[in-house]
UniProtKB/TrEMBL annotation:
One of its GO terms (molecular function) is 2 iron, 2 sulfur cluster binding. It comes from Gracilinema caldarium (strain ATCC 51460 / DSM 7334 / H1). Residues 1-77 form the 2Fe-2S ferredoxin-type domain. Keywords: 2Fe-2S, Iron, Iron-sulfur, Metal-binding, Oxidoreductase. The keyword Iron applies. Pfam families: Fer2, Fer2_2. Gene3D superfamilies: 3.10.20.30, [2Fe-2S]-binding domain. InterPro entries: 2Fe-2S-bd, 2Fe-2S-bd_dom_sf, 2Fe-2S_ferredoxin-like_sf, 2Fe-2S_ferredoxin-type, 2Fe2S_fd_BS, Beta-grasp_dom_sf, Diverse_Oxidoreductases. This is Ferredoxin. PANTHER family: OXIDOREDUCTASE WITH IRON-SULFUR SUBUNIT (PTHR44379), XANTHINE DEHYDROGENASE IRON-SULFUR-BINDING SUBUNIT XDHC-RELATED (PTHR44379:SF8).
Length: 161
């Protein structure tokens, strides 16, 4: 099967079997190891990617759904100024996710803030309720996201809104 799509801002084509999942296409065809295939059931978040603007587990996306889509992996996202906002926010807040959940947390923060630079605490809790990791303290996560939001607002608007 031939699958043209946009990967980290570049037009690419993958050749693979129809039963392959996006996580395997990324790892096997493009050697992107930041998208890990840990649980293969969509629960752990280690294979999170931004797929057509939404954060999704790549282990649940079949090859045929990838055709014509836009995929951003953690490797691609790390090349953006938005990633730098998140890293700065982690440093300023004194918290960062562990190596197990960092991909899902980082891409989750980006997906959240790209839709709303001032998300309500309840919305943040809902958005991150699927990430089950011992390192996540809900209050610290909320504080960190508010810190990152302020950094991004100052970068975009010159001040917090």
């Amino acid at each position: 099967m031939t699958i043209p799509f946009i990967l980290n801002g570049e037009d690419v084509v993958a050749q693979c079997s129809v039963d392959k999942r996006l996580v395997d296409i990324l790892r096997d065809n493009f050697k992107l190891s930041g998208t890990r295939a840990d649980c293969r059931s969509g629960i752990c978040g280690a294979c999170s990617v931004i797929f057509n603007g939404r954060i999704v587990p790549a282990c649940l996306i079949p090859a045929f759904k990838v055709k014509g889509s836009e995929v951003i992996t953690i490797e691609g996202f790390m090349q953006t100024i938005e990633y730098q906002d998140i890293v700065t926010g982690f440093h300023q807040s004194g918290w960062s996710p562990c190596q197990f959940c960092n991909t899902s947390v980082i891409l989750g923060i980006e997906a959240l803030l790209s839709q709303n630079l001032r998300p309500e605490p309840e919305y943040i809790q809902i958005a991150f309720s699927d990430i089950q990791c011992r390192c996540i303290d809900p209050h610290q996560l909320l504080f960190t996201i508010k810190t990152i939001s302020g950094i991004r607002q100052r970068r975009i608007y010159g001040r917090s809104i």
